[in-house]
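Backbone-to-sequence.
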């Protein structure tokens, strides 16, 4: 691995500080940001409005694109999954999900995952490390400039638990939101979490109006613990109370993510319990039909079972959508492609 740092891990003010230490005027930070984020250039030699000595110094000190494409798979529904190799030989996935005119980028925040949810492939090979802010940012830059996608929305829902890498994740969001960079609106960025309560409390102090999704997947403590071992440490009732505090502190509206597993969490009793949580948090619900993962025992629900669950929620005055599973034919669920190489 190179000793050079990731330029995409630096905020504008950090680039300005670097320039001051290097005897360069700090206003050149805006020029550097424009070349990287608005022109999509990954070689300092291409920053033609910078003096030659600064271009050479940037080349010696920084890497701009730390990702190398290992594999690309396309679904018949338009979803495209990219498998990137990192500089240390680990792998992460990034997915482009189309929906009408929207293109949502699903970003990874960790190599592997610590939390071993019983339906997710990300943790099958254990946790390796957190991604740096620049490795998160570079997923967006690669999809935009190397593969021609235009991000309308970003979701930190790929490999890993975003709130377990909170500092790097929030720094990446600030960089992506910077008006001198890609200027992606905070309200078009969503962070998902299994429910790490200490990090959720820290998120209350983040002053950008991003969206937050809570992975629920069962509204019953015992069942949720079977699906999500983190529930034993941070029980659902405590998570709900923390979410209420988050809302009181000015957080934007919450979404509850709920994977419907055939014969496990799709009963009327579960729907009633989920509706009670939704009303308590004034949250909308996203239902996702479980997609099979090799080695897991769970079964996908029939389409009519998901519709019935949706109807039960709507009868209880819950705003609910069925989020169509994308890329099933290319194993687009988190961690399935990277698992072939880990």
């Amino acid at each position: 691995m190179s000793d050079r740092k990731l330029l995409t891990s630096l905020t504008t003010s950090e680039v300005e500080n670097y320039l001051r230490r290097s005897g360069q005027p700090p206003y050149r930070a805006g020029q550097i940001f424009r070349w990287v984020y608005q022109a999509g250039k990954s070689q300092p030699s291409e920053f033609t409005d910078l003096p030659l000595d600064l271009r050479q110094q940037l080349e010696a000190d920084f890497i701009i694109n730390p990702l190398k494409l290992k594999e690309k798979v396309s679904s018949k529904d338009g979803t495209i999954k990219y498998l990137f190799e990192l500089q240390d030989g680990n792998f992460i996935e990034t997915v482009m999900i189309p929906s009408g005119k929207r293109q949502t980028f699903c970003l990874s925040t960790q190599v592997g995952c610590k939390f071993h949810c019983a339906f997710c492939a990300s943790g099958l090979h254990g946790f390796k490390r957190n991604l740096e802010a620049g490795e998160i940012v570079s997923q967006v830059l690669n999809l935009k400039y190397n593969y021609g996608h235009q991000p309308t929305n970003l979701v930190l829902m790929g490999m890993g638990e975003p709130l377990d890498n909170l500092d790097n994740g929030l720094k990446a969001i600030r960089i992506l939101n910077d008006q001198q960079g890609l200027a992606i609106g905070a309200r078009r960025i969503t962070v998902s979490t299994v429910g790490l309560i200490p990090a959720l409390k820290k998120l209350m102090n983040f002053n950008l109006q991003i969206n937050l999704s809570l992975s629920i997947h069962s509204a019953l403590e015992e069942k949720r613990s079977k699906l999500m071992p983190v529930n034993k440490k941070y029980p659902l009732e405590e998570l709900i109370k923390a979410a209420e505090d988050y809302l009181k502190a000015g957080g934007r509206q919450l979404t509850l993510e709920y994977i419907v597993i055939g014969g496990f969490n799709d009963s009327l009793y579960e729907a009633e319990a989920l509706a009670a949580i939704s009303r308590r948090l004034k949250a909308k619900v996203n239902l996702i039909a479980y997609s099979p993962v090799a080695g897991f025992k769970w079964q996908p629900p029939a389409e009519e079972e998901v519709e019935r669950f949706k109807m039960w929620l709507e009868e209880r005055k819950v705003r609910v959508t069925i989020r169509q599973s994308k890329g099933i034919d290319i194993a687009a669920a988190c961690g399935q492609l990277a698992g072939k190489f880990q």
